[in-house]
């Protein structure tokens, strides 16, 4: 059931899915490995490493005649005697948790405050790379004269490298001059 909670991320066809799809697979594989260890390996270790049980001289009741068990038994007796109060307390804590979720920010990626401008120049289909380069050079020259512009870069014939996950660059397309 835990892995099912991560399924939307595992199969999402979006930037969030691209970023977090591996979580689904990692959680699923980890849970399967954990189950195998718990069901097969741990009992095998118990059989081979733990000593054989020795009978208790004072009898079976002596196992429960310890201070720790007596404290646990008193706590359990109180919980059972006041089961409705305990249940109401659990429900109240659950409601507080649900109400507390209203203050949790609901966003997958944090807001971006990257001070950048991306300009995409597309000439009519069939334009040459040299025409696209000339148009991009004019825009670059204008941008470089702006005091706010620190770095100006252009990519002709394809999008920029994927340096920022929320950006989906244009893939190389030889017939398209972009």
Automatic annotation (TrEMBL):
<feature type="transmembrane region" description="Helical">
    <location>
        <begin position="84"/>
        <end position="104"/>
    </location>
</feature>
<keyword id="KW-0472">Membrane</keyword>
<dbReference type="Pfam" id="PF00873">
    <property type="entry name" value="ACR_tran"/>
</dbReference>
<feature type="transmembrane region" description="Helical">
    <location>
        <begin position="23"/>
        <end position="45"/>
    </location>
</feature>
<dbReference type="GO" id="GO:0042910">
    <property type="term" value="F:xenobiotic transmembrane transporter activity"/>
</dbReference>
<protein>
    <submittedName>
        <fullName>RND transporter hydrophobe/amphiphile efflux-1 (HAE1) family</fullName>
    </submittedName>
</protein>
<dbReference type="GO" id="GO:0005886">
    <property type="term" value="C:plasma membrane"/>
</dbReference>
<keyword id="KW-1133">Transmembrane helix</keyword>
<dbReference type="InterPro" id="IPR001036">
    <property type="entry name" value="Acrflvin-R"/>
</dbReference>
<keyword id="KW-0812">Transmembrane</keyword>
